[in-house]
Amino acid sequence: MFAALCTLSLAVPLAGPRVGAAVAGIVLLGAYVITDGPLFDLLAYPGDYEDSRLYGLITFVLAAVALGLMATAASMPVAVFVGTILLVGYGNLGEQLVRLRTDGPVVRVVGFCLTAAVAAVAGQAITRSLAGDAVISALPIMVFLAASGAFLAALLRDMLLRSDDPIVVLSVGLLLWLLAELQPTIGTTELLIALAVTVALGYTSYALETASIAGMLTGVLLVLLTTVLGGYGWFAVLVSFFAIGGLSTKFRYEEKTELGVAEDNNGARGSGNVLGNAAVALVAVLGYAASDAGLLPHEPELFLFAFTGSIATAMSDTLSSEIGSVFDRPRLITTLKPVEPGTDGGVTWQGELAGIVGAAIVAIIATGLFPEVSGGGATIIVAAGIAGMTVDSLLGATLEGSVLGNQGVNFLATLSGALVSVLLVVTFVLG
């Protein structure tokens, strides 16, 4: 029933926005009038029973109406609107069908993503066909949008409650609108390779217990967007951090557990940790794509150095923490006084050395993959990584725990690394 109601979004491309608004009004009226009985039980979320009102369905329809207004009164493509609504509705259906067979969390996520992506592609294709637009030539971009939306929706549903589908609808719709505006050019073969490698890496990270389900979905979405909007070079830099950083978490894990400094969940990193380290890199990728498409008046290579600077910081900080934490007698970076292992802002010379090596790894990979990064560019990336790692330690010693959480510190540190990288490029390369 929920999927069938979502299918009514096709009224917009079929009969126009006025008919679509009338359909939405009828559904809203029905959701308000129905207060009990079999139909209420069919459509009710658990929280709806307290007031005998279908609040879940009402808020979902209102979220759909908000997207519909963006599609009719703003520049959001109608195909994105329809694809988003069908993605969430049929994704839910796919997950529930899988749940009848198994309660395995990964299998349920796969069921949601596959069904959601197929429904989103179908919705976009039908809308484009009704509008007289090309369908076959646009298939790669439609699949890219559908896959990106499915991963984001699955991630949000893992982090939020099932009744938060309106938030999922709005978030997915806005992301797909942004991606559609960037107009990425990608062939069918390149897209299939990107999807296959992305999903394989995501599952491997979960199987090796270096990421939780939410962390896996976050990483998969970031890698897919980076690969399509940036290219395989950007993909290699990002994956080097995920791979080396994830494995470093397992370094002498039992010893770190005894010291009380090991990552929770057997070292599996969640979405907050992944986003804290990679959110700045994602913004840099989006900035690069927007600049390359002429939407931003900046040199695309500035965003490349912001990207590599943030990843160098994330790599430096991760290796410094995971390797340096097993050595005795760390010292607080602000006073150089000995502190207990695991103290925020505590550093060891072994950890600092590991952090420098991490930044150098990113610089070497970038030098080999990007013509814009020469020997001087590599030095800038290493310097940015060290600067960001130092900012992380300083924030840990001063603000972490009282003002900032670990994810906030990671975000500000990677932002510092990106800014240092850009400033050095502007001063010594472009200047």
From TrEMBL:
Keywords: Membrane, Transmembrane, Transmembrane helix. The keyword tRNA processing does not apply. InterPro entries: DUF92_TMEM19. This is TIGR00297 family protein. It is found in: Membrane. It is a multi-pass membrane protein. It comes from the Archaea. It comes from Natrinema hispanicum.
